[in-house]
Write a structure and sequence with these properties.
Elements: H1 6-20, E1 22-24, H2 25-32, H3 36-48, E2 52-55, E3 58-61, H4 70-75, H5 78-89, E4 97-100, H6 104-112, E5 120-123, H7 126-134, E6 138-140, E7 145-147, E8 152-154, E9 167-173, E10 176-178, E11 182-185, H8 188-198, E12 201-208, E13 219-222, E14 229-233, H9 238-246, E15 250-254
Parallel strand pairs: 4-5, 4-9, 5-6, 9-12, 12-14, 14-15
Antiparallel strand pairs: 1-3, 2-3, 7-8, 10-11, 11-13
Helix pairs in contact: 2-3, 5-6, 6-7
Amino acid sequence: MADIAEHERQQEVLRLLDGAGRVSVQDLATRFGVSLVTVRKDLEALERRRLLRRVRGGAVGASGADEGAFEMRLRYRSAEKMAIARAAAEIVHDGDAIALDCSTTCYFLAQELRDRRGLVVLTNGLRTAELLSEAGATVVLPGGTLRRSSWSLVGDIGDVFVGRGRVARGFFGVRSLSPEAGLLELSPEETAAKRRLVSVCGEVHGLFDSSKVGRFALHTFAEPHQITGLITDTGTDAKDIAGWRAAGVEVRTAGPER
C-alpha cells in the first residue's frame, strides 16, 4: 500500500479504527510505506475533524465521530458504490416516487437519476436533496435533527407520513446486514429515521459494498421480511449472497466500469 494518496490513507485509518478500535503510528507507517511524520500529520488532520482521538503512539476512535465525515466516505470504495448506484438506477423510471436515505451510495444513485423526469424523492439526505432538486425533481424532506457528519436529518420524525400514501421503492445504505437481523445501523437516531422511510416504501432495496458484510452494528431498520432486494459489488462472498437468496431475497451484483 506504499505511496497511496493522503485521502486514501485517512480512509484506511478510519476503516482500521472501525474494526480494531485503535491504531499505532508505527504500524500505519509500515502499512502505507510512509514516514512516521506523515502518519502523525494524517492523524492530526483526522482529529481536527473529530473523527478520532490521538493517544500516545497512535489513535483511538472518537465517540462522536459517527461513521466518518460525508466527504471522506464518498471517496472510500467509490468505484464499487458507483457500480451499485448504476445498477439501482435501472429500476427507477420517469415519474416514480422513491425514497433515498442519506448514505453516500444513495448520493451516487442520485447522480445517476438526474436525467429522470417527474421524480418525487423523499430523502433525509441534504446533499442528495440539493442534487436532485437542482435536477428538477420534487424533493420532500421529512424533518428531524441535523447531523453534520452525514449531512442528514435524523431521529424519530413522528407520523408525518400517515395518510399520505406510499412510494414505489426505497433505497438504503447500511452499516451492516445479515439474513437473521436484516439491514442494520449503529446510530439510534439514524435507525429511527430510516425506519420511518422504510415504513412508506412499497419495495425496500439495500445497497452495500462488500466491506459492510460482517461489520458490527446494533439496530435493525428493515427486517428481513421487509427487504425486496439487495445490490452489492462483485467482491461480496458467494456464501453471503447464497444466504440471502435462501432467505428469499433477490441479490444483484455489479462491478466497476473498466
